[in-house]
Amino acid sequence: MGYKERLKRTGIVCLLPVISYGILGPLEIYCGNKKDFAFGFADFMWMFLGISIAIWVLFSLISALFSEKINEKICTGILCFGVASYIQNMFMNIKLSEVNGGPMDWNSVKNFTYLNLVIWIIMIGLIVVLSVFLKKKWPVILIAVAAFLSAIQMVAVFSLVFSAQVKPDDSDNLRMSGEGQFDIASEHNIIVFVLDTFGNTQLENTLKTHPDLLDGLADFTYYNNADCHYYTTFPSMTHMLTGNEVDFSMNGHEWVNSAWQSDKATDFYDILKKNNYVCNLYSGAGSVSIYGDMNNLYGKFKNVQPTESILNQGQLLKLMGKMSVYKYFPYVAKPYFEVLTHEFRDIVTLKEVEVAIHDNGRFYKDLTEKKLSVNPEYKNALIIQHLFGTHLPYTINEEAEIVEDATIDETVQGLVTICNEYLLQLKELGVYDEAAIIITADHGSWYGNDPQPVLFVKRSGETHDQMEINTAPVSADDFQATIVALLGEDYSKFGTSVFDWSAGETRDRTVYMIVNNKDYPAVSGLLFNRYLEYNYSTDKNELIEKMNIGPDREFEPRPW
């Protein structure tokens, strides 16, 4: 057998692992996770294709230099590796990740790891034995098996290429910018603070030892019987800002996009535009998981704009390569090639773009250093500041200074300090009196029986000698109508506002909470597996009592 024949044989056999590791593997990874990636198919596939072709050609040329006997042994070894890798990926990857997205618990597959290694040894041994017993026919079998499996993989490659997107869903690089986070309008401002997880009970406990805590909110009305409807940031924020209740027949991704694209959401932001309001939403990391595709916010919020991105192709190549090897290698070797989600955070960076501040302490630091300023381009503005609130870990003290460890009482005091400083700066700029201000939370506290969010409201021109307290049964359902009411517009199509409810009234309200119940199977893409529904009509005492008894209904969420 001459050099050309050896080169042909080696080239065909080498195709099998080259296609697996260098082409099909990265494609399968991308197509299976493209909604979560901030880069496109073309951003990495050409690199893999070029490197794969180079390795294939170089290895084939070098291997063909050896004698026919040695070349056959090399090709047999390559086939052993290629077939075992193919079978691993197709049939033996019983578990590749944890439901919570954390590092793989390798002890949970410890027994299978040994079995998997034995199967690899058997497969390789079987191919070697066949090469000996079928010595005369082996050169033909060698090429036939490699060509057949390579052809199967190429069918899969072409299928995935046609389904892959050239660009990710966020094709215009839309991002929520932090630019102008401390800008306000010259005439009318509606300021909304959403202090994540801040519940009434947390506040009331701190007031027991600091009764003067809320003196700076004298012009506000404290609605201490407010309902959040949904007990987590998703879907609470989208529910408040679009007015849409969750459709539990849809998965989360489908619902959040439909909510933002609904007529109710469109009508709400059209009314604000008609009244010459610029809308800005400043929320933290994970905004895509809260609001869906940024296209949902584009055109509604001024600070959601296309942004130039920079791709770290070297790091992308490394991570995608490791993930491809992770898929095809036996379990005994997989731990060395595991890649976690957070490793992709720096793959795509934004060029010269401020990030919206979500952290309590950092927001206060920038607020005191940069100060609020009137933007001459804003006549009227709706500004929504979504801060970390009383989420764990607690990282601010009572002066809103960043600390490594704080108590819940110190955090509550710190949040009030932040709000007081903001109000003070509004007064110094002469826009406080005309401003309507809402201080609330997207939901109550996760860490105790504290299901109701705080809610303080000051209407434009409203003044009191001391803060008023209202026990009216209000709800996050009232958010849109309340904003439109503050504009002085007809809000009937958006439901009721908080101003329509009086103390002493009853109102049927529902809260949905989430849990991860080990008695039920995990739900793909979610950290929880049950929705718990609680119905009540009076106040939080009734709700807490029902929470202690058990839900009125519970059901399984759809996979994300």
Evaluate the radius of gyration.
Answer: 30 Å
Main pleated-sheet profile? 7 strands, mixed
Shape annotation: elongated
The overall average pLDDT, rounded, is 92
Biggest sheet strand order reads 6-11-3-12-13-4-14
Q: Give the percentage of residues in beta strands.
A: 5-15%
Give helix % range.
Answer: 40-55%
List low-pLDDT spans. Answer: none
Helix count, DSSP H or I runs of 4 or more residues: 15
The tally of strands reads: 18
Gap from first CA to last CA: 57 Å
**Helix/strand class:** alpha/beta
Account of the protein in words:
This protein is of the alpha/beta class. The strands form 6 sheets. A 7-stranded mixed β-sheet has the order 6-11-3-12-13-4-14, with helices on one face. The chain has a 3-stranded antiparallel β-sheet with strand order 16-17-18, with helices on one face.
Please specify the SSE layout and strand pairing.
Elements: H1 3-33, H2 42-63, H3 68-91, H4 110-133, H5 138-163, E1 174-176, E2 183-184, E3 188-195, H6 200-209, E4 221-223, E5 226-227, H7 233-242, H8 252-260, H9 263-274, E6 277-282, H10 287-291, E7 304-306, E8 309-311, H11 313-328, E9 348-350, H12 360-370, E10 373-374, E11 380-387, H13 408-428, E12 436-440, E13 455-458, E14 468-470, E15 474-475, H14 479-487, E16 509-515, E17 530-536, H15 540-549, E18 553-555
Parallel strand pairs: 2-10, 3-11, 3-12, 4-14, 5-15, 6-11
Antiparallel strand pairs: 1-7, 4-13, 8-9, 12-13, 16-17, 17-18
